[in-house]
Amino acid sequence: MLVIARIGQGWLKDLHEVKDQRFLGPEEFIEEIQGGRQERVSRVYKISLEDMIEAIEGRFKIRRSLVYSFSRNREGALGRSLVAYLGRRWAGYSLRVVADHFGRDPVVISVGVKRLEERLGADRGFSQRVEILEKNLIHNKKIIKVN
Description:
mainly alpha; 2 domains; two-stranded antiparallel sheet; globular
């Protein structure tokens, strides 16, 4: 859309600047894309990443050591993806913050969240387990922002 509209203008510096390792283009374009992608969360809760890891450990039986592990263990990857998904959805964390917390590349975390979201749409049992986790996680937490 943006690139096609500006194709006849030759090489343009603003089309070659990478923003947040996901977007290519000027600030106005990035704001337009982000505005269309943001989830409609009505509340942001005060939940630490550690609280999320503890909740995931309890509900999904994924050991904390696996979530922090640098191995390619699927359980650890699922744990990190759950933290990123829940953190973004309920506590306003960016994928970069979660990636930095685990010492991972934001792109890897983003791919994990995408897979998690696909699984939520395809696996009803898994989706129900995550819903219960979400309810338990936000129960009695302080709301820090209302959109």
